[in-house]
Amino acid sequence: MTDSQSAPSSDAARRWARRGGRLGGRRDRWPPEREARSLRARMERRYPLAVREITIGERRFAITVVADPDQVLLEMERGIAHAGRDEPRWQPYWAESWESAIGLGTRLIERRLDGAKVLDLGCGIGLAGTVAASQGADVFFADAAPPALLFARWNAWPWRDRIRAARVDWQRDTLGESFDRILGADIVYDRHDWEHLDRFWRRHLTPGGSVLVGEPSRSGSNAFPSWMADRGWHCSGSEVVVEHRPRRIRIWDLSIEARRAGEGR
To answer: Is residue 3 part of a domain?
Structure first.
């Protein structure tokens, strides 16, 4: 995906998903080494990079991040000024390695996911989805910010045969497929998004599937489980301790009766 592409329409998102979330043409036929060099070069042209060693369970993941996330904010502000907009096309939060993704990874590393279809929604740099891929899942990275998808693909590169990536707006896009598990790290902080997420999850969850949400104990999200329960979701909660973080990460596991899962379609 080129950085200049606009968000796909629902039809475009479905076509993108069906063909694997990959660019067509010559690049699909590149050897993996050349494709990796191209991907890395695209990241380096935009941002200075750093590598964080993140331990989850007994596994260590080398996660490439933006060395200075404030640069992403400055880039967004320049884009708004250049385009004469009041609002950005996408938010800069993707550039952070959020502890909520580590919390989700801690839960995912405990289970085998061989062959499971997993959607990492609002994936950012792709940590949660990368852990899922390492456990055998087929992972679809989705984010509204095109640069985030570069980082997600790079960080999951060892499992590249099992990953796809596409720009997705959960307020209006439909992917035309369903998933056994949908992940969301720190995506419920804005209450205005809850209704959109409820509808998107219903459209894209397989019968018997579940949504796993990681949330850093923000007071504004306290009402989220009861809000979802009022709409027919079953929500069970747990907490994960993340190193060097005083407050625990809340993990919410959401499921819904099969007969109600498609009500948002």
So the answer is: no
